Structure to design on (370 residues):
């Protein structure tokens, strides 16, 4: 079994370390390194059809739903198309306003999740075009969609999704860029800059992984026996806070919640005390100042905070002892980068608690029943 895990203690850790390769495999061949122009012939829809789209629904469950939440920001920013994001089990039972100008995109590692599959079947019946972002070749969703963008993460064994999520983000970033380029809502220079940022993020993740593993390892002692945990972020990193909290509850059984930092004051701040640590994602981005104030509000209430921020941002040491620095990258790809420390923290806490990280209780890798 150790051989299958290539020397790693768990599949989950192995898969976290495979993420740079998963990004590269998902991106390569689909983007011109010189011009940043994206090419996705497998989309299965003509550029003309994509020009006519006036709304996009993203439908998914679990971790894949978090990828959808990030993609909403990218698509709206790059391609200027309104996006709705739905949990598949909600989507399938609500009143949907669909027509031929709507594109429905399912996002699924397995391509077999019952609710997501039901969602695209309904959307198709209502005349929407269907695209799927999927990791499993030939799965049911890929057979039923008009087009598939495969995430080339390779087989994922750990029940808690890691490299499949990173690959979904990479594929969705490509798709958002592609839409922006087809629709002319992104200029050549910006397209090139974003394309470059996506290609380069694989190298950045590869370079940072060993250091992060070590630094986070030295933090867990102070946090692993918590009963509750809060994860906060803003903008593109709000969904990453949700994903961080999901990972922690899935594999360590610690109650964790992800929250939009600005929403703290409307409730969860009442919970803050020394027994409710907070992981705050605070990169130097366009909402940086706001994120800092949110962390200061927690500190003022004696909360314990781990801040993940940008290398060189010394101010972070004024608000907490536990800072994990990330290299500065183009802020559009921050969610890809900031996913990694959140995964490692959850992993190490779960290991320290003696949990079966690859096979958490009550969970299945793929949920093919309703
Ligand atoms: C299960 C898995 C999750 C996954 C979700 C959606 O709950 O345990 O890791 O995110 O299903 O799966 P899918 O294959 O559709 O991405």
């Amino acid at each position: 079994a150790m051989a299958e895990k290539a020397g790693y203690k768990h599949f989950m850790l192995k898969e976290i370390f495979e993420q740079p390769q998963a990004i590269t495999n998902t991106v390569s061949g689909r983007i011109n390194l010189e011009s940043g122009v994206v090419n996705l012939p497998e989309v299965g829809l003509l550029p003309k059809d994509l020009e006519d789209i006036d709304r996009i629904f993203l439908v998914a469950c679990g971790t894949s739903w978090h990828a959808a939440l990030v993609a909403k920001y990218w698509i709206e920013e790059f391609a200027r198309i309104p996006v709705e994001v739905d949990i598949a089990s909600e989507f399938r039972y609500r009143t949907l306003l669909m027509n031929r100008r709507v594109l429905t995109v399912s996002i699924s590692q397995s391509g077999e999740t019952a609710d997501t599959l039901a969602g695209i079947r309904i959307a198709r019946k209502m005349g929407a075009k269907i695209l799927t972002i999927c990791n499993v070749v030939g799965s049911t969703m890929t057979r039923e969609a008009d087009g598939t963008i495969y995430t080339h993460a390779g087989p994922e064994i750990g029940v808690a999704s890691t490299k499949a999520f990173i690959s979904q983000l990479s594929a969705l970033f490509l798709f958002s860029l592609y839409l922006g380029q087809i629709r002319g809502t992104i200029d050549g220079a910006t397209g090139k800059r974003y394309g470059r940022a996506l290609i380069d993020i694989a190298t950045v993740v590869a370079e940072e992984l060993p250091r992060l593993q070590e630094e986070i390892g030295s933090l867990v002692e102070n946090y692993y026996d918590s009963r509750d945990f809060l994860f906060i972020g803003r903008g593109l990193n709000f969904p990453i806070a949700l994903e961080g909290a999901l990972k922690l509850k899935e594999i360590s059984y610690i109650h964790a919640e992800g929250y939009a930092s600005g929403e703290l004051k409307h409730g969860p701040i009442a919970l803050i005390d020394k027994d409710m640590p907070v992981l705050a994602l605070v990169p130097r981005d366009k909402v940086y100042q706001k994120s800092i104030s949110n962390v200061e509000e927690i500190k003022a209430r004696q909360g314990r905070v781990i801040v993940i921020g940008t290398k060189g941002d010394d101010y972070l040491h004024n608000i907490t002892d536990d800072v994990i620095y990330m290299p500065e990258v183009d802020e559009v790809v921050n969610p890809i980068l900031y996913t990694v420390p959140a995964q490692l923290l959850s992993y190490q806490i779960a290991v320290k608690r003696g949990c079966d990280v690859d096979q958490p209780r009550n969970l299945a890798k793929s949920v093919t029943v309703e």
